[in-house]
Design brief:
single chain, alpha/beta, Rossmann fold, 2 domains, eleven-stranded mixed beta sheet, 9 helices, about 20% strand
Length: about 350
């Protein structure tokens, strides 16, 4: 699996090439860090006004660039709201390439498909999206990727943290994978720790201790990405996860963490012959699928559910499978405004 230069920059360590690139990018890094730190300080001091809408707002976000598990958690919370008889809205910006004829991106299409009862609102401005959601009379508003959108007041800030790289390599972009300095962890009301299942108990304790240092009293909830089945990208009934056991499969995906996808599929007992990793939100084409097929040879083609809608739109992909994953909370979340009580 090829690793992009941008992905290599988020990892600890220096090769001569990475060191040289970091030296070149250092001025941009300093400017970005200064701007983001000053902006947060102004919000913390109350010198920038915020907007409150007429419904409880729950923000789900992260401190790092890329896949920590925000979208699966949004889906899980929306399903929980529906099960409780609540009207729920999901507000998301909709990053990436267009996934369908309606203009919905991959994540928007996935959330709408997994929680059809939810009001899914795609909005470039999350504050305006929240206003629209409140005007529809919903009981609770979930803001996807809302941690840095501080103009909108929220009743609960949920920060999703990847246990394998809690603060990336410690640098903000462009030298690393942080959107802001690690001190931003202290703003969260609750942290959800994902991808912890591959770590030893001792390592997990170390991660929890390091996160608690930013705010001693913060609840830290563990969550597990749990495969619930396999289906064709074009839709259909879920097949058991063990249907891949013992089979040669070739993975391809347009997500931020292809390594995690590989671990998940290997955990199902499949023999992964290779992984083709594309940029996050990649817009798959017939030619890119042909390249994947050539590399896969006789192995089954498997992608993520997030990629499925875009792949299914390409003729001749009826044999491609996707893995459907739910996020299961191993611990209890604190009461969620508008949902609990």
């Amino acid at each position: 699996m090829k690793t992009s230069l941008a992905h290599q920059l988020t990892r600890p360590g220096n090769t001569p090439l990475i060191f040289a690139v970091r030296v070149v990018l250092l001025p941009l890094y300093l400017i970005y860090l200064l701007v983001v730190t000053a902006r947060n300080a102004l919000y913390d001091a109350g010198l920038i006004s915020t907007t409150k809408v007429d419904a409880p707002v729950v923000s789900i976000g992260n401190l790092t660039v890329g896949g920590t598990g925000k979208t699966p958690l949004v889906i899980a919370l929306a399903q929980r709201a529906v099960a409780a008889g609540k009207r729920v809205a999901i507000v998301a910006r909709g990053y990436g390439a267009v996934a369908d004829a309606s203009g919905n991106t991959d994540e928007i299409a996935l959330m709408a498909a997994r929680v059809p009862e939810a009001e899914v609102i795609m909005a470039l401005n999350k504050t305006e999206g929240a206003r629209e959601a409140a005007a529809r009379g919903v009981d609770v508003i979930l803001i996807d990727d809302g941690y840095q959108h501080r103009r909108l007041e929220r009743d609960l800030d949920v920060l999703v943290v990847d246990a394998m790289a809690p603060i990336s390599n410690g640098y903000v972009v462009p030298l690393g994978g942080l959107r802001e300095s690690p001190s931003g962890l202290g703003r969260a009301d609750v942290m959800v720790l994902t991808h912890h299942e591959t770590l030893s108990p001792e390592d997990i304790e170390g991660v929890v201790a390091s996160l608690s240092a930013y705010r001693r009293d913060i609840p830290i909830v563990r969550a597990t990405h749990t495969p619930i089945g396999v289906r064709p990208v074009s839709g259909g009934e879920l097949q058991p996860t063990d249907s891949l056991a013992g089979q040669d499969v070739f993975l391809f995906c347009g997500i931020a963490s292809p390594d995690g996808f590989r671990r998940t599929v290997e955990g199902l007992g499949a023999h992964v012959t290779g992984v083709a990793g594309f940029p996050d939100h990649h817009d798959f084409t017939a030619s890119s699928i042909a390249e994947v097929r050539a590399e896969a040879r006789t192995a089954l083609l498997v992608c993520t559910e997030k990629d499925a809608a875009k792949v299914a739109a390409i003729p001749g992909t009826e044999d491609v499978l996707c893995v459907v994953i739910d996020m299961v909370l191993d611990d209890e979340l604190p009461p969620i405004p508008g949902l609990d009580g």
